[in-house]
Design a protein that fits this description.
With 421 residues, this protein is α+β, with helices and mostly antiparallel strands. Helices cover 22% and strands 40% of the residues. Strands 9, 10, 15, 16, 17, 18, 19, 20, 21 and 22 form a 10-stranded mixed beta sheet that branches. Strands 1, 2, 3, 4, 5, 6, 7 and 8 form an 8-stranded mixed beta sheet that branches. A 4-stranded antiparallel beta sheet has the order 13-12-11-14, with no helix packed on it. The model has no long low-confidence stretch (mean pLDDT 95).
């Protein structure tokens, strides 16, 4: 692949481009699917992709195709030559300079017996422990992804990353009714004997079977939420979007000038997780990723522009990848839940797109009412209103337990001051 990527790079410079980046990926996937509680498919697939970014006279064009045939590549380069003249001019366009490395990570070959055993354990657990839970879709797969990335600025990177991935989605149905859909998924280096013990799979199935009987809250109130790890992902997703190109370049980020400020509770420390299962050692721009502490004891340490964004705004660039972990706290989940006088245990937070200042109003799903420290009925048609930036400030506790989703490693988080209706 390296030879082919270098050849394409030469062809781009030969076509008149000043700089270019070429990335080739080949992936072998062994996959077993479950649909409606039965194994539905087992297959092996191979695919390849080419991604190109080229710059001429500070005008940038990109292309991606799923074929490496010579005729396809020739057409891609011809199309890029045609399109570059009408692309916007921007002095900030550039390619990654001087990065190098050859990285191998994770299982490099598939264990099909382990995939079959994992599926068997999942179906057995469903039928014996959670018979009312219906697996709508589930995929258990091993992927070996090999990549080569080169640029005209002497970057030469390659990787071979293997991992197992599980995705499951389903709902429960019994004589009382049906629950809403729930899901989880993530990556790991090896499949466990019992699939319900990872990725919170057992927990979401257990919660789901209790959600066929739901109630609305009796009256509006202000209280606490305990966010389960999948809901915590939404908080991190909003935060990183505020620190990225879109919000920074448009000057709409609430954190535009907040580096060094306390943007979260002192208990909050967020780090990237390049060692997580399935994570590559370099990003799509062609920069190797090192350890990054994004929020340290509540203090924002940096913004997260792309290389282009950092040049555009003349601010530091950090190659961080896209996977994050939150440092665990010292309180157990049980004690955290017991400390809530009035609030909810929230599995999913459907808040759409919060306003630019972080204000949001969203429906909580796969959630349960907490009263005097006790988990009571499953909730339906319940909304919470608040401000995402303020939620980070109002974190009251972080659990000692952490769920590992591969790239993301997240705890349960208690936050005060949300309005329920």
């Amino acid at each position: 692949m390296h030879e082919q990527a270098s050849k394409i790079l030469q062809a781009l410079t030969g076509a008149g481009f000043d700089d270019a980046r070429v990335s080739i990926t080949e992936a072998d996937v062994n996959e077993l699917n479950i649909a409606h509680n039965h194994v539905s498919l087992m297959r092996t697939t191979q695919n390849q992709s080419l991604a190109v970014m080229a710059i001429k006279d500070k005008r940038r064009v990109t292309a991606s195709v799923s074929s490496l045939d010579e005729s396809v590549i020739e057409k891609v380069i011809a199309d890029l030559q045609r399109d570059v003249a009408t692309s916007p001019h921007d002095e900030a366009y550039a390619v990654a300079p001087g990065q190098s490395g050859d990285f191998t990570k994770g299982p490099q070959s598939v264990d099909r017996d382990a995939i079959a055993a994992a599926a068997k354990s999942l179906l057995q657990a469903r039928s014996e422990e959670f018979p009312s839970f219906q697996i709508e879709e589930c995929a258990i797969k091993h992927t070996l992804a090999k990549n080569t990335l080169v640029t005209t600025a002497d970057t030469q990177l390659s990787s071979s990353v293997g991992s197992y991935e599980v995705m499951i989605m389903g709902s429960s149905k019994d004589e009382h009714g049906s629950s809403s859909f729930t899901y989880t998924g993530g990556e790991m280096d090896a499949l466990p004997e019992r699939l319900t013990e990872v990725l919170d799979i057992g927990e979401i199935m257990a919660n789901s079977v209790q959600e066929t009987q739901t109630s609305m809250i009796k009256e509006k109130f202000t209280g606490d939420v305990v966010l389960m790890p999948m809901a915590v992902m939404d908080l991190i997703g909003w935060l990183t979007s505020q620190l990225g190109d879109g919000a920074l370049i448009s000057q709409t980020s609430v954190y535009q000038k907040s580096v060094g400020d306390m943007i979260g509770a002192p208990a909050l420390t967020i780090r990237n997780n390049p060692e997580g299962a399935g994570e590559r050692a370099y990003n799509g721009e062609g920069f190797t990723i090192g350890p990054v502490t994004l929020v340290d004891g509540g203090k924002l340490t940096r913004l997260l522009p792309t290389y282009y964004g950092s040049r555009k705004l003349d601010i530091p660039y950090t190659a961080s990848g896209g996977s994050w972990s939150i440092d665990p706290g010292s309180i157990s989940r049980a004690d955290m839940q017991a400390s809530v006088a009035h609030g909810a245990l929230v599995g999913r937070l459907s808040m759409g797109s919060p306003a630019p200042n972080g204000d949001f109003s969203g429906v909580i799903k796969n959630s349960f009412l907490l009263e005097n420290g006790e988990r009571t009925q499953a909730l339906t048609e319940t909304m919470i209103t608040g401000n995402v930036a303020q939620m980070l400030q109002d974190i009251q506790a972080i659990s000692a337990e952490v769920s590992d989703f591969g790239g993301s490693r997240l705890p349960w988080v208690k936050i005060s001051g949300l309005r329920f209706s």
